[in-house]
Every structure is written in structure tokens, then in C-alpha cells.
Amino acid sequence: MLKISVIGTGYVGLITGVGFALKGHEVVCIDNNKEKVEMINNKQPPIFEEGLQEAMNKVVLSKLSASSDLRKAVLDSDVSFICVGTPCSEEGKCDLTAVESVSKEIAFALKEKKAFHVVVVKSTVVPSTTEKVVLPLLEGNSGKKLGEFGLCMNPETLREGFALQDFLNPDRVILGLKHDETKKVMEKVYENFSSPKFFCGFSEAEMIKYASNSLLATKISFINEVGNICKKLGIDTYTVSKGVGLDKRISPFFLNAGLGFGGSCFPKDVSALISKGKELGVKTLLLDSVMEVNELQPKVFLDLIKSKTELKGKKVGVLGLAFKGGTDDIRESRSIPVIKMLLDEQAVILAHDPKAEENMKKEFPEISYADSAQQTIDSSEIILILTDWNEFSSLDFKDKLVFDARNILKNKPVNYEGLSW
Ligand SMILES: NC(=O)c1ccc[n+]([C@@H]2O[C@H](COP(=O)([O-])OP(=O)(O)OC[C@H]3O[C@@H](n4cnc5c(N)ncnc54)[C@H](O)[C@@H]3O)[C@@H](O)[C@H]2O)c1
Fold it and tell me: What is 113-178 written as a DSSP string?
């Protein structure tokens, strides 16, 4: 078993740390947010993720600890995973500020270290970043050449809401690396994972992540466009998706028509790939459209609502604020543009989400929040379902007018409108 340091303990870093600890490694999680560090050491998950509390109860103190001392963590471990955020800059580019700063700090520690150490980039970074940004920072600030330390690009493919399960049983482990010694260490890191290991170069590993996310986002925008046509024709899009998904070449996944994709990955990763393409003089017609369809979808939903009812002064119950069910993450949630448009229409909003209310209160302090979904329904004139939380699927909507943007209801209420079905 190895000693692993995980730098950046957000959604990916914490799951990575807990996941490796469950697999038997000794892990230290590093974050510059002291509050998070304290919470982790007290076995309190700073984020909501199914099964995380139980897993932390098992591994914190025995196999996992948290700290803000990056230097010590690198000196005391065999491998360091970089898991800091790579948000979208104003121009849609991949913002590498945190990756650069952490790479430098790791390099300073490497300078002091005699033993072989492998640095792994797990953050999603645009192709050529590991080779052209991370490597020069590591070499330049450690005084060592690649080979004297190891470098690997290992993108993460977990889905929030299923994060631990995905981390522990990924479809494949992508490992972009150059040297045999690094390969041996990474094989040891992943020795208790039965998933296939796919070895390639740094930039191929980076591009596999972008191509995968962009293809999944494309499927969503594709089915949303098909769904918008189906709606006008009175065709049930979900029956169409089922029929299409039976084709093995297509697969049934990511063909759920609805409000579009949000979250911390798809929007920013597709934007970053578009931006890289433009920088290289490559036209990105398809990816531009994927984003355009996604931006349009909340507007299509609002137009549907407005075609059935007045919004000014209406009590509107919003069910779902997280970007999808199973998480408290509201980054790029499609609920945000919908709420903005409802406010422009002067609707009176009462919102509820099982886990994401506290995060959304920071974004929209001016709207009201309910303690339960049923209270939201009872106190509102019309109901909008914006997130696919399981617990919304069998509520009693009475005779309220329901606009569903996620198609999750087991029984359709009497007054029901699906977004694109
Ligand atoms: N969230 C996902 O579902 C997901 C899935 C796959 C890949 N990714 C990628 O993984 C990366 C991390 O995403 P995330 O959602 O976990 O981000 P996040 O914002 O939740 O977490 C980043 C963490 O890094 C910490 N941090 C920032 N700068 C630091 C520094 N200098 N030193 C120490 N800690 C620092 C922050 O405090 C934060 O806790 C991104 O590149 C993202 O694209 C995310």
C-alpha cells in the first residue's frame, strides 16, 4: 500500500482521498480552506454525497487525515494527486491559476526530497497543460528533470450523486504517462481496482476527458432539440429515446430530454474545448451548437409556461435547485436561469431542494425557501420540477398545474405539462 497526498479537497479530491483510503492506502487530504480541513478531521463531510458520511466514519483517523501543510504532505507521501478546481474564465477558457500555484508548491517540496515521487494531475486540464504548464513548473522549481520524479495525467470520470461508487468502480482508468517507474507506481495505486487501465500520453489523457464530456453533452443537446420538435408534433420524446437507445451503437444513456446540462463539468469543459479550438484556428461548429441549445432550453421552458399561464404576481413553487439529483452542487444549475427569468416576470417564488437550499440562498437571497416539497406544493399556484430528485417522483400535486422539466413523475398529475414530451 502507498502513501498518497490529495491536494484540493472539493467534490473530486475528497472522494479521491476517501476512495483510496477505502482501498487500503494511507491518505492525507490537503486544502487551503482551513474550515474544510477541520470538518474532514471531525468526520463531517463538507459536501453532500450518498454514502460519504459512512465512508468517512470508516477511514478518517485510521487511514485518512486532512491538513493545510502541502510541503509536509508531499515529503511524507509517495504520490500526490492535484485535484484543485479548473473553473471557466470570463472568456470561456480553462482557468489554471490553482493548478499552477499547487504545481509550484509541490515542486518546492520535491527539491527537498530524495525519494522518487509521482505527481498526478487529476484536475480536468486542456490538452497540453500537463506537458507545457505543469511539467515546466515542476522542473523549474524543483531543479529536477522528469524521470527523477514521475508525472501522470489521470482524469477523473465520477458523476456527482454516484461519486464514491463511480470512483471505486470506474469504467476505465485513464493513465497518461511516460516512464516505466511511474507506470509501476500508478499500477500500485490502482492495484485494487478491477477496471481496465488505459495507458497513453499526457495530452491524449487530457483530450479523452474533454472528448468524453463533450460527447455526453452533445447527446443531451441533441435529444433536447429532437424533444422540442416532438413536443410540437405531440410525440412522446421518452418513447423515442427508448427506441433510439436500444441501438447498441448509440446506448440508452444521456438521452433524457429536459432542461439541459449544468454542473461543474459539462458547461465549462465544452466551453474550454471550444476556446482551445478557436485559439488553434479550428472551427467548432458542433460544440458551439451544443452550448447554444443548452442555453436556449430554460427559455423554451419559460415560453411553454407563459403559453399556459400568467406569471406576474403568481405564486410559483420551484422543486429542485441542485444541477441534478443526489448532490448539493448548484454550479451552472439550470434552475439559476429559470429563477432569473421568473423574477423578471415578477413571479413570487417559493423554492425547495433536499440538499442544495443553503448553496442557492447565497445566489438568490431574495426568494423564499420551503422546508419540504409538500409545503412548496401546498403554498403555490403552479409547480415547476427542475431537478431529478427521486423524492419528487411520487408527491401529491393535487390539482395544481405542474410544469415538469425532468420527466421523473411516476404518475402524471391531472394538470401536467412536460417540457418536451
Ligand atoms: N465535480 C465533478 O463532478 C468533477 C468530475 C470530474 C472531474 N472534475 C474536475 O476535478 C477538478 C476539481 O473539481 P471539484 O468539483 O472537486 O472542485 P472544487 O471547487 O469542489 O474543489 C477544489 C478544492 O481545491 C481547493 N484549493 C484551491 N486552491 C488550492 C490550493 N492552492 N491549495 C490547496 N487547496 C486548494 C479548494 O479549497 C477546494 O476545496 C476540476 O478540474 C474539475 O473539472 C470534477
Answer: --S--EEEE-S---TTHIIIIIHHHHHHHHS--BTTBEEEE------TTSHHHHHHS-S-EEEEE-
Q: CA angle 239-245-247, nearest 5°?
A: 125
Of 272, 386, 390, nearest to 321 (Cα)?
386
Strand order in the sheet with 197-200: 64-67, 26-30, 3-7, 79-82, 118-121, 150-153, 173-177, 197-200
Mean pLDDT for the chain overall: 97
C-alpha 19/C-alpha 158 separation (Å) is 11
Question: For residue 279, what is its C-alpha cell?
Answer: 485559439
| Ordered strands of the 416-418 beta sheet | 368-369, 348-352, 315-319, 382-385, 401-404, 416-418
pTM as predicted: 0.96
Which residue ranges have their beta carbon within 6 Å of ligand 1?
7-13, 30-33, 36, 83-86, 98, 101-102, 123-124, 156, 158, 160, 264-265
User: How far, in Å, is the centroid of ligand 1 from the Cα of 342?
Assistant: 31
The secondary element (H helix, E strand) that includes residue 216 is helix 202-233
In the three-class reduction of DSSP (H, G, I as helix; E, B as strand; rest coil), residue 187 is classed as helix
Predicted confidence (pLDDT) at residue 183 exceeds the cutoff of 90: yes
pLDDT, tens digit (0-9, with 9 covering 90-100), for 296-340: 999 999 999 999 999 999 999 999 999 999 999 999 999 999 999
